[in-house]
Write a structure and sequence with these properties.
The chain is mostly helical. The chain folds into two domains: 2-68, no CATH class; 73-174, no CATH class. The chain contains ten helices and no strands. The protein has helices spanning 2-5, 7-14, 18-32, 37-50, 57-68, 76-85, 98-107, 109-114, 117-136, 159-173. The radius of gyration is 26 Å and the shape is elongated. The N and C termini lie far apart (84 Å).
Amino acid sequence: MFQVNYHNQYYSAFGDSSDSENLAKKLWLSKLNEFSSNILYRAAEKIITESEYLPTLNKMIQACVYFKLPPRLPSPRDAYHEACRKESPKNIQTWSHPIVYLAGRDTGWLQMHSEIDAKVFPIFNNVFQKYCKRLVDGESFSIDAEPQSVEVIEKPASKKFNIKQLEELNTLFE
């Protein structure tokens, strides 16, 4: 498929030498052997329709992983926006997929709400991709929906501390 679609680039990369082409095929085979022929075909079609350049092995692996993921899993950018928009308590909300929640939790809710996207999205994306890899490897995820309660222990301030606070306030008004 790539030879036909990327004719000039293919021959620039491999020339007329079958040695370099065979080496590339062996490398690709060793790295892509975990994917079914159906996934490989769909990934190649996706690359051909989306890119005008001969793909690297890394691009092919990414495309194959894309087709191994559940169909309802959002893109990293959509997952990030979903995680940013959910209200607290986050663990009882309805999520498109548990790894969206987990990636947001691991990135840090406060960081996601208080810093700019350009800084936080790469962190979220990295965490999200790690969860995607684990998902492709067969791991399953769930969200603990038990409400997160924080136990607050109230301890009254000492009389000495209260007097000190009042004196500091009095100095502000003088």
